[in-house]
Amino acid sequence: MAEEVKTEKTEVAEVKKQENRVADPSLGVFGSTDNFTLAWQQAQALAKSNIIPANFQGKPENVLIAIEQSQRLNVSPFMVMQNLYVIQGRPSWSSKFLIAMINGSGKFDEELHFDEKKDAKGKPYSCLAWTMKNGRRVEGVTVDMEMASAEGWLNKTGSKWKTIPAIMLRYRAASFFASLNCPELTLGIYTKEEMEDNTFNNSPEDVYVQTEEEIAQNANTEEFIEAEEVTDAPFM
Q1: What is the predicted pLDDT for the residue at 31?
Q2: Whole-number pLDDT of residue 218
Q3: How far apart are CA 181 and CA 209, in angstroms?
Q4: Alpha helices, DSSP H only, in 90-203?
Q5: Is 108 exposed, middle or buried (0-12, 13-18, 19+ CB in 10 A)?
Q6: How many CB atoms lie within 10 A of CB 64?
Q7: Which of 52, 171, 51, 37 is nearest to 116 (CA)?
Q8: For a Cys staple, 140 with which of 82, 91, 177, 181, CB 3.0–4.6 Å?
Q9: CB–CB of 174/140 below 8 Å?
Q10: Nearest one of 27, 201, 174, 181 to 93, comparing CA atoms
Q11: Residue (of 175, 205, 39, 5) closest to 94 by Cα position
Q12: Which of 127, 174, 178 is nearest to 148 (CA)?
């Protein structure tokens, strides 16, 4: 009889122990069995929604990755799903989301600025992303149309570099800035535009050095004349 009572008490204690389990978000989705179980249940529920992007509908395994990313970035899973693309089997951020992450990170004293220049014909030519931190100017890499041409971005099928070069210059300047100054915000994921341009196999430093070498070897004979610098160009 005493043995039966002891067994019953043990079972009750185990049930209470299970009831009192609380997932710890600080450990991440894969930090514990409880965390994974809870995240998987959330992923299954979200995957049934028809207002999330197609890459996640009916695919709880993809949603689970989005949840993991959202916890690391401290944003909502829906925001991650709306801005996470899959290109050539790899995840990539939208550049607009990347800029928003930089501006909202609190790591810098100001929002991201863009120094833009036009060529002698008034067309967008170059862009440099920068901001301030503790009174010090923090810069990325200057991206220009010669770099875009040397890297082959202009000739890609469906390339936006020919139709909206000002926006593409900003996007690429922002991604270079993030890679150099706050890589923890990108979580090692490249932008959608970088993936489409097939530059994801090279680091920003490699692209910059390679482009400088190619420009030096194949420089135009016509001298480039800079127009006035534009700092407040409209951005879409």
Answers
A1: 78
A2: 52
A3: 18
A4: 95-104, 145-150, 165-181, 183-186, 192-196
A5: middle
A6: 22
A7: 171
A8: 177
A9: yes
A10: 174
A11: 175
A12: 127
128 - beta bridge partners?
A: 115
For the chain, percent of residues with pLDDT exceeding 70: 73
The single-letter DSSP state of residue 156 is S
Q: How confident is the model at residue 59 (pLDDT cuts 50, 70, 90)?
A: very high
Rounded CA-CA distance 175/233 in Å is 19
Q: Is 230 left (phi over 0), alpha (psi -120 to 50) or beta?
A: beta
Residue 113's nearest CA partner among 95, 90, 88, 138 is 138
Q: What is the pLDDT of residue 8?
A: 60
pTM value > 0.70? no
pLDDT tens track for 163-215: 999 999 999 999 999 999 999 888 778 888 888 887 544 444 444 444 455 45
Contact (CB, 8 A) for 225 and 203: no
- Tokens 């609190």 -> residue: 106
What is the DSSP secondary structure assignment for residue 52, as one 8-state letter? S
Specify the 3-state DSSP secondary structure of 124.
strand
Q: Are 42 and 32 in contact (CB under 8 A)?
A: no
What's the Cα-to-Cα distance from 143 to each of 153, 156, 166, 216, rounded to whole Å? 12, 17, 11, 15
| Structure tokens belonging to residue 102 | 């930089």
The size of the chain, in residues, is 236
Angle between helices 165-181 and 95-104 (to 10 degrees): 50
